[in-house]
Amino acid sequence: MKKEIKGVLFDLDGTLIDTVGDITYSFNALLKDLNIKQIDKEETKKYVGRGLANAIRALLKDKNYNYEESEFDSLLKVITETYATHPYESSSVYSGNIEFVQKCLDNNVKVGVLSNKDDNLTKIIINYFFPDIPFTMIQGYSKEFLAKPDPNQLIRFSKLCNCDVSEVLLIGDSDVDWQTAVNGKSQKAILTWGFKTKEQLIELGCEPLYDTITELEKELFKWN
Fold first, then answer.
1. What is the model's pLDDT at position 2?
2. How far apart, in whole angstroms, are the C-alpha atoms of residue 116 and residue 114?
3. Own/partner pairs, 36-39, CB within 8 angstroms, 24+ separation
4. Is 220 helix (H, G, I), strand (E, B) or coil?
5. Is 0.85 topped by the overall pTM?
6. For 29-51, what is the mean pLDDT?
7. Based on the domain organization, do 139 and 209 belong to the same domain?
8. Are residues 95 and 187 in the same domain?
9. pLDDT given at position 49
């Protein structure tokens, strides 16, 4: 990281919070309705990152379930309604993240969240686990704009921070986050404890990679 960091923008799933349990529960509600064998947490991780609609399409394709496009909204509704009733029951903040976010604020670095999860769910989950953190932006997916890796919301965050996008650090756990940072020309940090393995991230060309929050802290705060 060559420039001073004035804003840190976090991904949600697999980065700030381990949400895979609640996502799996929601996916399995749909699979049960369709009489398809349920999946475990590890299989769920394959589908997370590009938004719920894309996840469902990929999941049902892998399960060889054919549907009419006119049916899709009803399939999506099963998952969204299930998730809304269990938004954080099986989720937890990754160790050290609450302290890390607070350390950003203590160093006058603004913080935000950008997720491809539904906007309402994103706000519910973040406000539950981080009730006292004054995030500059909490943004989930909305039909009003393109999802990550489109960089427009990353750029909007930089404007809210009154800084250049090159002074924003985007922290995520996937190639989607990495590509978002590349597209927006921000700084980037990809974590290896999320929903993709370190080997997968290396194969996808993601860098720089961080194995622990302490490792990331040491590099981030030497610039501030």
1. 57
2. 7
3. 36/63, 36/65, 37/63
4. helix
5. yes
6. 94
7. yes
8. yes
9. 82
Residues 76 and 176 in one domain: no
User: Does the pLDDT value for residue 10 go beyond 60?
Assistant: yes
For residue 3, pLDDT over 60 is answered with yes
> Which residues make Cβ contacts (< 8 Å) with residue 165, sequence separation at least 6?
151, 154, 155, 158, 184, 185, 186
Q: Give the residue-averaged pLDDT of 116-136.
A: 97
The tokens for 102 are 């607070």
Last residue of a domain, one of 85, 120, 140: 85
Query: Does 104 lie in the same domain as 61?
Result: no
Contact 6, 166 (CB under 8 A): no
- From 30, 62, 85, the end of a domain falls on 85
- Residue 115 CA to residue 29 CA, distance in Å, equals 23
Per the structure, the count of domains in the chain is 2
The predicted-structure confidence for 144-169, as pLDDT tens digits, reads as follows 999 999 999 999 999 999 999 999 99
Do 202 and 216 belong to one domain? yes
Tokens 């989720």 -> residue:
91
Angle between helix 72-85 and 52-62 (nearest 10): 110
Q: Using 50, 70 and 90 to split pLDDT, how confident is the model at 218?
A: confident
DSSP letter for 192, please: S
Alpha carbons 177 and 190: distance in angstroms, whole number = 8
Kindly state the DSSP code that residue 13 receives in the 8-state scheme: B
